[in-house]
C-alpha cells in the first residue's frame, strides 16, 4: 500500500476519508461494523453549549437520489460529549473532529474553550451553515463578515486547527471562504446541505415538520464538486470535499478536483460500511497507480487552475 | 436531559450481510413475505427489526427500509406491504436477487409478567412482529389471545398462520371477514387485569388501543414504525414524542415501547398539520 496520509495544515490524517457530522453519531455507534480508528477521522454530531432535543417529527424523507433532513441539531451537548464520549474515542485512537454549533459568537467561543481543555480532539469544525434551525447556523455562513467574526473569535480561543463548514447558500461562497481564511481558518469543508422541500400529494401536506430540510446524497454531488473546484482555485488553505460521496469513484472526483480529504455522509445510512469501503478503495486505486494519496489532490486540474 | 444519542446496549452484535432472496410469497398484490438465505444466521428475536435494501438498487431508492423480522435464524423473513418505491422493488424481487440486510436492530418485545396472558393486537402488516412473538410463545407452550384487524379480508396477511398459534379474533372495517369494525371493537371484553397487550399496526390504531388499555390499567407495549434512515441511533430521524417532554427514538429506545410513555397526541402519530412547520 502506498502512503495514504494527508496534511490538513499542521494536522496529519491517516488517510483522506472522514465521516460527516450528523451522519456518524459520536463514532461509537459503529463499533459493531468496523474499527473507526482506521479512518482519517470522524466529525461528531454538531455539539452545542447545552443539549438539544431537536425538531419535531417528521424529520426526514427520501427524495430522488437523496434525502431531506431537518433534525434540528439534536445533540448531547459539549459537556456530556467531553465526559462520556471523548474518553472512549481517545482510548481507541479515533481521530476526532468536533463539529460545533451555536447561535452566538459568545457560545461558539465557549464551546471552543471547553474542547480546548480536553485532549483527544484533533480539530474543530465550525458549523456556520445548518439550514434547519431558526436561530444561528446558516446566517453566519452567508455573510462573509459574520463568518470571519466567528472564525477569528474561535481561533483566538484555541490552538486546535479550525475548519469552517461552508453553506452552499451563501451568495458568494468564495467570498465567505476567503473571509474565513483571512480570519485564521485552517481549512474549509464544502458543502453543507442545500434546503429543499417535499409535499405528500396523497395528504396534500408538506412532509417535514420544519417544512424545509437539507438535501443530501448523490443528488448533491455535482453541485458540491463544482463548489469545491471553485474554492480550491481561490484559497490557499485546504478544502475538504463533502456532498453525496457514496463510492470510491465519487471520493476520487473530489480529490482530483483538489480537495485534500473527503467526508462521507448520507452513504453511512445506506451502508454503514461505506466509509471503510471508500478508504480501502482509494488505497487500492493508489496502489494500482503507484501514487501516494496526497499525489491525487488536484490532479484533475489543468496546469495553473 | 436524557442522553439523546446512545443506543441501548445491543443484545447481539448487529451485522450487515448481503444475502440472496430465497423466496417471495405473495398474498394478493399488496403483501409479500420475503425470505432470505443467510447460512451464518441472524440472531433476531421477536420485536427486532432489520434495515433492508436491494444490493443493486444504486442511487434510488437510496435508503434501506426498516422491516420487522417475521422470523430469524438462517432464513430470516420479513412481511412487506407495497407502499412506496422501496416496497415496490421488494414486491418484484425474484429469488437469487441480492439484498443487504442489517440487523438485528432495536429491542425485543419485553417478557410477559408471570401470571398474565398475552393479548396481541395487530393491524394489517403490523402482524409480522406479533406472529413472530406468537410462534415463540407457542414454542414455550403459551397460547396468546390475538385480535387482528384490517380494512377488508384482503388486508389480513398471514391470518391463518396467526390462527394456528393463538385464539384469534378477526375484525374488518368493511365486514368482509370476522366482526365488522376496528380492533377496538373487540378489545373491551378481552381487556382485564389478567392480560398484557402487545400491539403493532397503524399509529392511530395503536393510539386507540393504548387509550383503552390505560383506562383499564392494562400494560400495553407498542411496536413503533416511523421513517428512519440508519436504524441504529445516528440519523435521529425517528423521534416520537415522549410523555413529559423530549423524544424517544424508535430505533434505539424501541421499536417496542411501553405505550404509556408515548405522547400519542403529537408527533408522527397525529395527523400531520402543515401549521407545525410555520414559525
Report on this structure.
The complex is a heterodimer of chains A (305) and B (279). Chain A has helices spanning 78-91, 105-116, 138-142, 144-157, 173-182, 221-234, 248-257, 267-270, 274-289, and strands spanning 6-8, 11-13, 17-19, 41-43, 60-63, 66-69, 96-100, 123-127, 162-165, 187-190, 194-196, 199-200, 205-206, 213-216, 239-242, 261-264. With 305 residues, chain A is an alpha/beta fold. In chain A, strand 9 (162-165), helix 5 (173-182) and strand 10 form a beta-alpha-beta unit. In chain A, 61% of the residues are buried. Chain B is of the alpha/beta class and 279 residues long. In chain B, strands 10-9-8-7-11-12-15 form a seven-stranded mixed beta sheet, with helices on both faces. A six-stranded antiparallel β-barrel of chain B has the order 1-2-5-4-3-6. In chain B, helix 3 links the parallel strand 8 (145-150) and strand 9 (167-172). The longest helix of chain B is centred in the middle third of the chain and has 13 residues, at 127-139. Chains A and B meet through strand 5, strand 6, strand 13 and helix 8 of A and strand 13 of B.
What is the secondary structure topology, with strand pairs?
The complex is a heterodimer of chains A (305) and B (279).
Chain A (H helix, E strand, L loop, with lengths): L5 E3 L2 E3 L3 E3 L21 E3 L16 E4 L2 E4 L8 H14 L4 E5 L4 H12 L6 E5 L10 H5 L1 H14 L4 E4 L7 H10 L4 E4 L3 E3 L2 E2 L4 E2 L6 E4 L4 H14 L4 E4 L5 H10 L3 E4 L2 H4 L3 H16 L16
Parallel strand pairs in A: 3-4, 3-16, 4-7, 7-8, 8-9, 9-10, 10-15, 15-16
Antiparallel strand pairs in A: 1-2, 5-6, 6-14, 11-14, 12-13
Helix pairs in contact in A: 2-4, 4-5, 5-6, 6-7, 7-9
Chain B lengths: L14 E13 L3 E6 L12 E6 L10 E7 L5 E5 L3 H8 L5 E8 L11 E7 L3 H13 L5 E6 L8 H6 L2 E6 L6 E2 L2 H8 L4 E6 L2 H13 L4 E4 L15 E3 L5 E3 L6 E3 L21
Helix pairs in contact in B: 4-5
